[in-house]
């Protein structure tokens, strides 16, 4: 009996000694670098937890990514950036923003063409009478299209934000809520495609339809979104057969009650499966998702359906392959890490300016090296026209590459250097 107890104690002592030695080795610089490369964590204890999470990953089915599947719109330059050019009052500032994006090496501009800002006062009314003198509401969007062409950049035109007149409840239904008549949306999408045929090819229909408040104050409705996508895609393709339709970017969330409770969100993975079940595959050429790193870095290899990290697009890809849609790529609509100061709520995680400037090139490197099924990845975002977000201490302000006065942030310089080092990959 005593011998058995002694052997047990010896075994435990050996295990503890081995564990202690393992922790010691991991705590040294090579071990820390390896853990960081696998978990995306920079601090020691989160790295240790991350390694245990990776061990748990072995017990779950691996996403089926079908990396050999032939696809269109994947072999393109991955370097895109979100811009708010419509908010710049002065045309010279619009041009300066595009010029700085081009100088950084970006090849894509993701720009919203807000429905409420173009068909402002009523159906078929494209005159802007919100100021004197009245002018064509197309004027600044024509300029944006001209600038993209001038600087040899591709536009991803996001169509969203219906005007209040398109809903009986107006903005009481939520300023982003879908219109009462989806045909109104289709007519507007068709009008954009008709005006810019031959100059704009890529259209994204809606943004984040699976989360509040992007579907207004209504419960999230995948089937309704598919109907909106269908009529919009058909209207665009009717006037421009060469148009490429991008699905609304899905936001990563694990919420499950958004389809029954107004003001809530709904899992991106369940939303996408219901899109497929409703016949969505015929109405988009490119799937879109968001690519925020949130609380860990771009090298985080952990995979769990209830964990939000940079690797989550692999689950979207897995669903696409399972639904026979592996011939289509994923594009990331928004990607970055948030460098919020210590006095700003870390709603989207928090990294230092140095970490942000390191993470974004690493993210592009992972996309280029590991994800051949992913095409464009658009950084969120180049700049805002004003410092309103900063003055209100909103964390959204600290994804920026340029300050509102065009001052480059460290991340702008690091991405510019990275793009130059690998080439633009046209």
Give the biggest beta sheet: 8 strands, parallel
CATH architecture of the largest domain: Alpha-Beta Barrel
Count up the domains.
2
Note the overall shape.
Answer: globular
**N-end to C-end Cα span:** 73 Å
Secondary-structure content class: alpha/beta
Instruction: Give the number of DSSP strands.
Output: 10
The amount of helix comes to 25-40%
Poorly predicted regions: none
InterPro entries: GH, Glyco_hydro_5, Glycosyl_Hydrolase_39
Organism: Caldilineaceae bacterium SB0675_bin_29
Family: Belongs to the glycosyl hydrolase 5 (cellulase A) family.
GO molecular function: hydrolase activity, hydrolyzing O-glycosyl compounds
Write up what this structure looks like.
With 426 residues, this protein is α/β, with parallel strands linked by helices. It has two domains: 1-56, no CATH class; 76-424, Glycosidases (TIM Barrel, Alpha-Beta Barrel). It has helices at residues 2-27, 29-39, 44-57, 91-104, 115-118, 139-150, 182-195, 222-239, 268-277, 313-322, 353-370, 388-391, 410-422, and strands spanning 79-83, 108-112, 127-128, 135-136, 154-159, 202-207, 244-249, 287-290, 330-335, 374-379. It has an eight-stranded parallel sheet, with helices on one face. Helix 11 (353-370) runs parallel beside helix 13. The mean pLDDT is 91.
Search tags:
glycosidase; globular; single chain; hydrolase; TIM Barrel; alpha/beta; 426 residues
Explain briefly what this protein structure is.
This protein has helices spanning 2-27, 29-39, 44-57, 91-104, 115-118, 139-150, 182-195, 222-239, 268-277, 313-322, 353-370, 388-391, 410-422; strands spanning 79-83, 108-112, 127-128, 135-136, 154-159, 202-207, 244-249, 287-290, 330-335, 374-379. The protein is of the alpha/beta class and 426 residues long.
């Amino acid at each position: 009996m005593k011998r058995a107890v002694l052997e047990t104690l010896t075994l435990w002592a050996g295990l503890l000694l081995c564990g202690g030695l393992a922790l010691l080795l991991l705590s040294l610089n090579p071990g820390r670098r390896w853990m960081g490369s696998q978990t995306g964590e920079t601090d020691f204890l989160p790295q240790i937890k991350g390694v245990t999470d990776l061990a748990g990953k072995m017990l779950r089915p691996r996403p089926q990514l079908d990396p050999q599947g032939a696809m269109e719109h994947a072999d393109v330059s991955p370097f895109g950036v979100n811009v708010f050019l419509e908010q710049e009052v002065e045309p010279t500032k619009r041009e300066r923003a595009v010029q700085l994006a081009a100088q950084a090496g970006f090849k894509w501009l993701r720009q919203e063409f807000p429905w409420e800002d173009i068909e402002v006062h009523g159906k078929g009314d494209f005159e802007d009478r919100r100021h004197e003198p009245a002018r064509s509401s197309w004027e600044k969007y024509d300029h944006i299209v001209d600038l993209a062409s001038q600087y040899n950049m591709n536009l991803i035109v996001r169509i969203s934000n219906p005007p209040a007149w398109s809903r009986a409840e107006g903005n009481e239904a939520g300023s982003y809520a879908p219109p009462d008549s989806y045909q109104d949306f289709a007519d507007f999408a068709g009008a954009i495609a008709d005006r810019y045929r031959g100059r704009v090819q890529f259209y994204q229909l809606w943004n984040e339809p699976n989360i509040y408040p992007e579907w207004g104050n209504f419960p999230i409705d995948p089937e309704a979104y598919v109907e909106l996508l269908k009529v919009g895609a058909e209207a665009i393709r009717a006037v421009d057969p060469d148009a490429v339709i991008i699905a609304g970017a899905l936001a990563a969330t694990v919420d499950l009650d958004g389809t029954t409770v107004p003001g809530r969100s709904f899992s991106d993975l369940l939303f996408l499966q219901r899109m497929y079940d409703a016949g969505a595959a015929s109405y988009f050429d490119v799937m879109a998702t968001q690519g925020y790193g949130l609380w860990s870095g771009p090298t985080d290899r952990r995979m769990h359906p209830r964990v939000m990290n940079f690797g989550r697009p692999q689950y979207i890809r897995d669903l696409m392959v399972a639904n026979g849609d592996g011939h289509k790529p994923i594009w990331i609509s928004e990607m970055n890490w948030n460098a919020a100061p210590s006095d700003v709520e870390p709603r989207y995680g928090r990294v230092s300016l140095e970490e942000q400037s390191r993470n974004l090139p690493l993210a592009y490197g992972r996309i280029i090296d590991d994800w051949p099924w992913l095409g464009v990845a658009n950084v969120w975002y180049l700049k805002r026209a004003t410092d309103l977000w900063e003055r209100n201490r909103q964390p959204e302000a600290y994804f920026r590459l340029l300050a509102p006065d065009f001052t480059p942030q460290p991340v702008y310089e690091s991405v510019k250097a990275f793009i130059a080092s690998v080439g633009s990959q046209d």
